[in-house]
Amino acid sequence: MKDKWLYERFVAHRGLHGGEIKQNTMQAFENAIKNGFNIELDVQLTQDKVPVVFHDLHLNDLTDCEKDVRDLTLQELKNVRYKNSTAGIPTLLEVLELCEGKTGLMIEFKKLSVDEQNYELEDIVLPMLKSYKGEFIVKSFNPFSVDYFRTHAPELTRGFLSDALKIQDYPETARQLVSELVTDTEKRVDFFDFGIGRLDSSEFLQSVEGTMPLFVWTVRSQETYEKIKHRADNIIFEGFIPVR
Questions:
Q1: Where are the beta strands (DSSP E) in 18-162?
Q2: CA-CA distance, 202 to 105, in Å (whole number)?
Q3: pTM of model > 0.85
Q4: What is the DSSP letter of 132?
Q5: Domains assigned to the chain
């Protein structure tokens, strides 16, 4: 099986966090490594074009800063702390150095929209990944980002993220490529990564399920896992420790 590691260990959503350990922080990643889980994380650029690991485009929900990640330089961002915590926002390079040879990474590329066609983030991160010696895959909600790696680094494993009810939910500018990512022999991704909230109501998922490996996010209890494990090749979890 290609990327056997990806299916052997559950994936900790933004690291293994909870309580004093904040998501997408070095502490969360260290905790996931310690407990034997793969890691899902999010990457985006600062104003001075440094890849950093943070989920939201905006900082205000998780920190006391009212700006966007892309509006701050790395030096400015290094002064930002998660709410009720001393934990800061790591660079992608710091996370890669921590995780190399210790666990596998699912690296999500954060974009402004699902039809954005700016590849600055991908152009900057790809050379870092090509020199990385650890296990990883790339994925995004943005089909153009996913397809970028098919043309620029076809050796990489790619996943497509979605929670769409139907393919018509995508803007016309992205719809054809979305369809090709899950059906076209040349362009199709290696796995489909779907949101649990619409697992039973999505026509789009129904059209894809069974044709490629399925990851389900975000599973938040053992009870939920038991209900969907017959459908999922693996899960991305948070808030509990899953048991097979």
A1: 38-45, 51-53, 105-109, 136-140, 158-162
A2: 27
A3: yes
A4: -
A5: 4-237 (3.20.20.190)
Question: Could you report the per-residue pLDDT of 193-235, keeping only the tens digit for each?
Answer: 999 999 999 999 999 999 999 999 999 999 999 999 999 999 9
Q: CA-CA distance, 44 to 118, in Å (whole number)?
A: 12
Say if residues 182 and 211 touch (Cβ distance below 8 Å).
Answer: yes
Structural tokens at position 29: 């990643």
Cβ 129 vs Cβ 156: under 8 Å: yes
Residue spans of beta strands (DSSP E) within the chain: 11-13, 38-45, 51-53, 105-109, 136-140, 158-162, 191-195, 214-219, 234-237
Please check whether residue 177 is in contact with residue 199, taking contact to mean a CB–CB distance below 8 angstroms. no
Residue 30 in 3-state DSSP? helix
Contact by Cβ (8 Å): 65, 80: yes
Terminal alpha carbon distance of the chain: 20
Q: What's the confidence (pLDDT) of residue 167? A: 97
Query: With the CA atoms of 205, 210, 214 and 219 taken in that order, what torsion angle do they form, in degrees rounded to the nearest 10?
Result: 70
Closest by CA to 237, choosing from 5, 4, 3, 17, is: 17
Residue 99 has a CB neighbour count (10 Å cut-off) of 23
List, in sequence order, the alpha helices (H) in 109-142: 120-130
